[in-house]
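tl;dr need the bound structure. longer version: we got a ligand (glycine) that a collaborator sent over and nobodys looked at where it sits. i said id run it. heres the input, straight from their email, havent touched it
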Amino acid sequence: MGKAKVLVIGGGGREHALVRTLADDRDVEHVFVAPGNGGTAAMENVTNVALKDPRDLVAFATREAIDLTVVGPEQPLVEGLVDHFRRHDLPIFGFGKAAAQLEGSKVFAKRFMQKYAIPTAPFWVFERIRPALRFFQEQFQEDPRRRFFVKADELCAGKGAFPAFRPEEAEEALRKLFEERFCGVGERVVVEEALRGQEASVLALTDGRTIATLPPAQDHKRAYDDDQGPNTGGMGAYAPAPLVDERVYERVEQEILLPTLLGMEEEGLTDSGVLYLGLMIDPKGKPYVLEYNVRFGDPETQPILALLESDLYPVLKACVEGRLEGAELKWREGAAVCVVVAVEGYPERYTHQNEEIHGLDEAEAMEDVIVYHAGTEYRSGKFYTRGGRVLGVTGLGETIAEARERAYAAVEKISFPGMRYRRDIALKALAASAEGAGEAGEVEEAEG
Ligand code: AMP
Ligand code: GLY
C-alpha cells in the first residue's frame, strides 16, 4: 500500500493537534490543511492550502487523490461538507448534514434526547419573545431562586448559551437572541433548567456500529481563573478527567452513549465520525447531556491526542470504512494538561494582533511538552500572533500534577505583548482526588 495523503479542514489548535498526530503516522506521507495556521505552516510534511469553498475542496481532494479528509470545525459539518465529498466518492471523516443536526440545532438535540429518554435538563422552546418573557416572569415569581440557561437554537461559535439566574439576565439574553439576532436567524430559543455539578467531555469515534471512546477530558470554558468571566471557546483542558471514573463512565455509556446511537439508528441518522458529549456530572455521579457536538473538542483534542501512542490515521480510516471493530487505540499512561494562551481582551474583543512570539523553541525543546498553535502566523522562520486563542501549551506527565507543572513551566518560556492565560487549569482535578490534594499543594509551592 502506498502512503496516504490526508486533508484536514480547519485552522485552530484542534486542527494543529490532528495534523501533528496524523503527520507522525507511519502510513501518512503528507498532510494538507485548509486553511491551517502558523504551526502547520512550519511543519515539514504539511502544506497549508487557502481553500474554503466546498467545491474547491472537492476539486482539490480529487486532484491530489486525498485518501482521507478530516473535518475539524462544526460549521462545515452542519452545512453538509461531508455529504458533498461523499457524493464525489471521496473518503471523509465526520457526520453528514442530517446527523450534524445534533450539534447544529439545540431544539433538534433536546427533542431527540427527550424522545429517547437520554438524561438532560428540562427545557422549553420559544418562537417569540413575549411568551418567553411571560414564562420567566411566572417562574421567578413562583421561586426567585430558580436558575435557567437561555440558548440559541443555531450554532453560535460556543457563545450561544446565557445564564439566566435573575429576571434581568433572562430578558437581556432573550433580547440578544430574538431582537439583536446575536447568533443568526433568532427564530427559536431553548430555555433550560440549570443543572448542578461538574462538567466533562466524553468523545467517541464511531463507524455507525462500533464506538471507541477517547479518554474523558475537562475543559475550562470561562475566561478567567475560578471560572469567572464570559464563556470562551475553552481556556485549557486536561485528560483523563478523574471525575469520569469507571462508575461514571459506565453510566455515560449505558444511559447516554448507547441510547444516542440507538436513537440515531431509529431516526435514520446512523453515521460515521465523532460524537462529543458535553456532560454535567451531578454530585451523585449521574451524567446529563448539556450538548452534543459532532466534532472533536477544542481544546480537549490537544491533551487527548497528546496521550495517543498508536497511529490515528488507520482508526479514522476504519471509521469511514465501517470497520472500527478491531481497530486499536493505545494510550500513554498518565495525563496531559493543555493551557491555552490567548491575547488580552479575548473573547470580548477580537484584536487582530501581529506580535512576534518569543520562546517557542525553548518551550518545545522541553521534554514531554507540545506547543499546539491556534491563532498564529509563520513568516520567514518567525511566529506572530493573529489573535484570539494563540497557543495550546501542553504538558505530559505521570500524574495530572506533573503534567500541569510541565505545561506551566513551558508557558513561562513563551512571551508576546498582550499574552494572557488562566493559572488554574486542572486544579479542580487535583482538589478532587485525595491523592491529588498533596500534589496540588506541591504545585502551588513550585509556582510560588
Ligand atoms: P452549551 O453551549 O449548551 O454547552 O453551554 C455552554 C456552557 O453553559 C456549558 O458548558 C455550561 O457551562 C453552561 N450550561 C449550559 N447549559 C447548562 C445547564 N442546563 N446547566 C448548567 N450549566 C449549563
Ligand atoms: N471545548 C468545547 C468545545 O469544543 O465545544
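gonna send this back to them w/ a short note. Residues 158 and 233 are 6 Å apart (CA to CA).
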